[in-house]
Amino acid sequence: MHSWRLHAANKETDSELHEEVSSLDDQDRFGSKTPNFCIIMNSSGFHYHMVILLGLCVVTFLLAACQTAEQRMMENEDLSPVNVDAEILTIGFYNVENLFDPIDDPKTADDDFMPTGKMKWTSERFDTKLENLARAIRLINDNNGPDILGLCEVENRFVLERLTNEFLPEGIYGIVHTDSPDGRGIDVALIYRKSMMLYKGMKLHKVPLPSVERPTRGILEVTLEKGGKFLTVLVNHWPSRSGGKVQTEPKRVIAATTAASVIDSLTSHNPNADIVMIGDFNDEPSDASIRERLRGLEYPDGQEFDGRMINLAVRPSRVDTIGSYLYRDSWLVLDQIMVSPGVLDENGLILRDRAMTIFHPEFLRDYHPSQPLNPPRRTFVRGTLYIGGTSDHFPVFARFGWRE
Fold this sequence. Notes:
The chain is α+β, with helices and mostly antiparallel strands and about 400 residues long. It has 2 domains: about 15-25 and about 75-404, Deoxyribonuclease I, Chain A; about 35-70, no CATH class. The protein is about 30% helix and about 25% strand. It is built from 9 helices and 18 strands. The chain has helices spanning about 15-20, 25-30, 35-45, 45-75, 125-145, 155-165, 245-270, 290-295, 315; strands at about 85-100, 150-155, 175, 185-195, 200-205, 220-225, 230-235, 275-280, 295, 310, 325, 330, 335-340, 350, 355-360, 380, 385, 395-404. α3 (about 35-45) packs antiparallel against α4 (about 45-75), α5 crosses α6 (about 155-165) and α7 packs parallel to α8 (about 290-295). The protein is globular. It starts with 14 loop residues before the first helix and ends with a strand.
């Protein structure tokens, strides 16, 4: 079923933005602040208990109304797949939120993620994180796992080797990784099903921020082959909003300009090139970096497409009751999947899903009473308080067709 097709199935984590997210909800949850309603109940007895119960009923009603509105919106969208007779290729992306090993790397600023560091990052916590991530990855694509998965916020190749060889079925996935210039040591990477795709090569494209800015992650270009036809995947993790969305927007516009240049180079050699662009863009589909500079637009069924990339995240972004990331009680679709117009032909990668899926099974969500919107359950809250969650983002994926 669609749930963008909504399946009911911390950072420049990006962030410093994401560290701001330790909200009053988190404070209330762990006792640094006593909720006002608790004071009222203690002092005023039965009648105030009734007031609280009534309030909870109202909240429940409003949440149900939101779900109904979401369902109505989905019913008005034609999300039925196209090219259903083609072989299926599932491509996804997952911001795995600070996937560090507990071993010191003198070349990166990873001191916080050591057993004696600020996060008290032990081997046991590292293994728990890998177990949680592997469970989520396996469940994508009807319990078969994705065929191609882009990742960001991974420290090094070692964490990927442990994930794919010890926690996912051994030998299934190949790894594509290279170190990015990000000073924190968080990289972009890709894993792919070796029985389906052949790895042909990779490049890392530098995002040229001004010299006064600290370096950011590059854009990873991966070339894969299947049946003599080529597929290019661009894995992205654009600069965060730390410091303010408006103030940092120029950095994401530079990243969009870099990505656009890579795409234009590929399509200048082959106008029908099959290109998939995935990542945490730290902007939404309606923001200038995506919509105006990159020209990542919704595909209008049956009409000529005049953008650079077809953005399968546009339709999910119109629903306000789910997103890939929750910021101050607002759902955002920062994690996106886009494809080149080459998918509209009948060869190689072809369009199947009209919208990407935001994958949010219950075990990835935070159901603590202080979190009524049930956001992704993070590994840490309030900076350094370990709660053992998986990531502060939900993974996203889309199914494509493939014809040789």
